[in-house]
Amino acid sequence: MNSDLWSKQVDAIVRLELRRHWLGRRWLGTYLLVLAPIALLFMRLLIMSARGPSRTFTGLNQSLQTLNLVYAVMFQGFILRFAIFFSCMTIFSQMFRSEVLEKTLHYYLLAPVRREVLALGKYIAGLIATFTMFAFCTIATYVLLFMPAQSGQEFLMAGGGITHLARYLAVAMLACLGYGAVFLLVGLYFKNPVIPAVGFLAWEYFNFILPSVLQKISVVHYLQALCPVPMPKSPFAVLTQPTSPFISIPGLLIFTAIILVIASFKIRKMEVTYSAD
Fold first, then answer.
1. Phi–psi pair at 227, nearest 5 degrees
2. Is the CB of residue 139 less than 8 Å from the CB of residue 165?
3. N or C: which end of the chain has fewer CB within 10 A?
């Protein structure tokens, strides 16, 4: 009986959160991060087309190895490490902080809803929003990079490209899952999430220069192991054995669950003191 009630309450919270924030100015920066790589590749296509058919064919008919390498760098260097990271920081860290600043959190807390259910509903709403945006971003950038080239078209039609794209989508979803949980917790403990976010970003972005043991204490280490094409190693990188997907995926799911449990305990003890903010 309770599980049925809780599932209905979660569904209601998810719907409410998405209606409130989907078109809000709060997510404008996230939309720009999603559209930036798409706009860049689209402009590249227009510029190449404007140069004339012969130069367009020469410029776009790149080898399959080059196309895969270019997309790996774009996805892992920008979309994964930067765009998804900052979008999750923007959306999830403000799930409760924005309610406190706008003095609306008490409406939720006065409702006959368990606080754990409230946290789960908000988290799922943020997960749906971020993954929807970055699934669109991943598909659009992949198609814009591969389809204009003959080798890319053949790769997609043969099925190999679709398999790679599916793996990139899985990585994007796991990134939203892991980073979302982390920043939901950060938003509960810190009034200003920017300071811990900068430290966390440095840890994730420069993960490759850390000792092998420390590299494994990060989200990006496990996500990179799931990408179909590895990014070129920096000359300063400390070589580390990639983690098996059979460990990476359950590990990320367990990590996310632990973070959400900690967040639930924090929310149970949460008190509304608008005057302090």
1. -70, 140
2. yes
3. N
